[in-house]
Amino acid sequence: MTSPSPHQRPGLFLAFEGGDGAGKSTQAALLTEALQGRGLTVLRTREPGGTPIGEKLRSLVLDHGHGTIDARCEALIFAASRAAHADQVIVPALDRGEVVVSDRYIDSSVAYQGVGRGLGAAAVADLNEWATGGLWPDLTVVLDVDPGEGRIRRTAGDTGEDRMESEPDDFHRRIRAAFLDAAAAHPERYLVLNARLPIAELAGTILTRVGALLA
Ligand code: TYD
Questions:
Q1: Quick check: pTM over 0.85?
Q2: Are 17 and 107 in contact (CB under 8 A)?
Q3: Distance, CA of 104 to chain centre
Q4: What ranges do the domains of the chain cover?
Q5: Would you give per-residue pLDDT tens digits along the chain (215 residues)?
Q6: 3-class secondary-structure state, position 4
Q7: Contact at 8 Å (CB) between 50 and 132?
Q8: How far does the centroid of ligand 1 lie from the alpha carbon of residue 48, in Å?
């Protein structure tokens, strides 16, 4: 490893972050395939979700129709889902020496609940540090997308927007800035890429950086 792992476990923990419609799932899938092609065991997972309780919490917080969900309640639901995800899925895989590829992680809460909902980035980071026992990724790939473009990409042929996606563009602009701020604070643990670049080019850059971590 080029820098000490933030979790000191034998595996490698990678997260993808970015606004809605940035192409995280596509890149997470391509990276997973590429690493498996190199003979590595990769556990691909997503937030909110990743466990049975997490999937229930996911639908509570993302589906319309559960009445008012205030910002603190929303932050706690995401953190609860993440606590289960870290404990039941991510940590065991890292202890087995696997590569974990997660679609979203703590920075999503910092951006959406901390900045987007105005709870404060530091307060939400603290809550999630507690929830996960301080488990941070070795590398977070931020796929940076203009909110207007993200909306066009994700609604193309789509069935409708969830509670978060249907927030106005200004909300998504603040989310975007929050991801960039998180990356700027710890550049050694982030890779920020323009989500508009061709899919294969993005995949190549990500694989090169991850390859360096594995070397
Ligand atoms: P998802 O369907 O995973 O969206 P995407 O494909 O864009 O990742 O839905 C996740 C939504 O939940 C997304 O709008 C971001 C939001 N979210 C939070 O607000 N806080 C969080 O901690 C997480 C993990 C997601």
A1: yes
A2: yes
A3: 1
A4: 12-214
A5: 345 678 999 999 999 999 888 999 999 999 999 999 999 999 999 998 889 999 999 999 988 888 899 999 999 999 999 999 999 999 999 999 999 999 999 999 999 999 999 999 999 999 999 999 999 999 999 999 988 887 777 776 566 788 888 888 899 999 999 999 999 999 999 999 999 999 999 999 999 999 999 98
A6: coil
A7: no
A8: 6
Asked if residues 165 and 32 have their Cβ atoms less than 8 Å apart, the reply is: no
Give residue 215 CA to ligand 1 midpoint distance, Å: 31
Superfamily grouping for domain 12-214:
P-loop containing nucleotide triphosphate hydrolases (3.40.50.300)
Burial 88-103 (b: 16+ CB within 10 A, else e): ebbbebbeeebbbbbb
151 lines ligand 1 (CB under 6 A): no
